[in-house]
Design goal:
The complex is a heterodimer. Chain A is of the alpha+beta class. Chain B has a three-stranded parallel beta sheet with strand order 1-2-3. Classes of the chains: A alpha+beta, B mainly alpha.
Chain lengths: 208, 216
């Protein structure tokens, strides 16, 4: 005569969660929601009770390698002007699987030689599939993947085709969202420069 | 929980103790407040974005906090169509048909790259590059796929759009039926097979220089 006990046992699980929510709330009084520790605890394996992320007020921290729409890096010059890292080589546009990157190159009108800087740079973020190949292949570390994902808007053509102005972000921003990647790339760059300087010094010494 | 919209119209002098009990407002605001917290999405998914949509509907992100937990399996009871994924040529007539069956204040969200602009399949032989070529889209959510939080941001955009709507000043003439969107029939290269004869005649009469009108 065990009919119905299975249902009761199942309902006990629900009841346990229900009570657990209040027990947890009591344990954490005022700290369980809208605080980074609270979010971290509710995302951990020890979480019990309600574990919903209260989205607009609190957001799940994104991992460093999280990738969304790409952005272009610029370095601040001595007088504060933007110096694009991009040289408009077009490798990103070539490797892009959905072909969402459009670059306009330019030539110096006096010498006729190409200017190493894009005049226009467009990314259709409604085509972009966030694969990160552009960032992977860029030889100048000029294009990187962003963490910003709140990009919904009412019009596609006016708001979702990003131009150079909208895509450009400072190197500081990149260092902030991807610190380890930035550190690694900087170390490689510094090592290369040192090697170059050492070679130049050696050559100068050989000449003498 | 999203912020409750301030129901009181600005510019009226209400004493602080009465503020919780009295609302001087337009009927639009009450109407919209009711509508913004009861947007019922249609329960249908097309591709991988649907997985994120399911995730957003489940306990971790919980659409119920926005009053959207009732995913309706019938278009006749839903207000919002989340086009979540790649729209293939085979699926498009069904989507347009479902859209036509939805009751009037209806919203469409193009979720992810494929539904918004075709995404990686934008030049594919069997994929429509953007659902907005066939049905009107209210909100575009980029991403491949958008994370559940990005989807929730898009849904909040829909709520913001509802807030701005005026039902009692912008009347729709309700004596006239809403014109349904004609269901597209797509053959190879997104040509309507019913146009074949016209195209053949056009080819016979010389090289294609003018745009051939579609047969009604």
């Amino acid at each position: 005569m065990n009919f119905g006990f299975g249902i009761l046992r199942g309902l006990m699980v629900t009841m346990g969660h229900f009570i657990g929510t209040f027990v947890e709330d009591f344990k954490w009084i005022g700290k369980r929601y809208y605080t980074p520790e609270g979010v971290a605890h509710r995302s951990s394996k020890n979480a019990s009770g309600i574990f919903t992320v209260q989205y607009p007020e609190e957001k799940l921290p994104v991992p460093e390698e999280f990738r969304f729409i790409p952005f272009l890096l610029y370095e601040e010059g001595p007088d504060g002007e933007q110096q694009d890292r991009c040289t408009s080589c077009g490798i990103c546009a070539k490797v892009c699987p959905p072909q969402c990157i459009w670059i306009v190159r330019t030539e110096d009108p006096d010498t006729g030689r190409p200017v190493p800087e894009p005049v226009e740079f467009y990314i259709d973020i409604d085509i972009c599939m966030n694969c990160g190949y552009c960032a992977e292949y860029c030889p100048f570390d000029a294009i990187k993947m962003d963490h910003q994902y709140e990009l919904a808007s009412y019009d596609r053509h006016s708001a979702h085709i990003y131009n150079k102005e909208k895509l450009s972000m400072s190197v500081d921003y990149y260092a902030q969202i991807r610190p380890t990647n930035y550190r690694r790339e900087e170390d490689i760059r510094i090592a290369k420069e040192e090697e170059k300087a050492a070679k130049a010094a050696a050559r100068a010494a050989a000449k003498e | 929980m999203t912020e409750t919209p301030n129901l009181n119209t600005e510019g009226y002098d209400i004493s602080p103790e009465a503020r919780a009990n009295v609302a001087i407002t337009t009927i639009d605001k009450i109407f919209n407040a009711g509508r913004r917290y009861s947007v019922w999405p249609m329960m249908f998914g097309l591709a991988c974005c649907a997985i994120e949509m399911i995730s957003a509907a489940a306990g971790r992100y919980d659409l119920a906090r926005f009053g959207m937990e009732v995913l309706r399996p019938s278009p006749r009871q839903s207000d919002l169509m989340i086009v979540s994924g790649t729209v293939t040529k085979k699926m498009l007539p069904q989507i347009v048909r479902l859209y036509n069956q939805m009751p009037d204040p209806k919203y469409v969200m193009a979720m992810g790259a494929c539904a918004s602009g075709g995404g990686p399949f934008k030049e594919g032989y069997n994929v429509v590059s953007g659902v907005d070529k066939y049905i009107p889209v209210d909100v575009y959510v980029p991403g491949c796929p958008p994370t559940p939080q990005a989807l929730l941001h898009g849904l909040m955009k829909i709520q913001e759009k509802i807030d701005t709507e005026k039902h009692f000043t912008n009347f729709r003439d309700r004596t006239k039926p809403i014109e349904p969107i004609p269901v597209p029939i797509l053959g190879p290269d997104i040509i309507d097979p019913r146009d074949y004869e016209t195209i053949k005649d056009g080819v016979k009469s010389g090289p294609l220089t003018t745009v051939i009108p579609a047969v009604e």
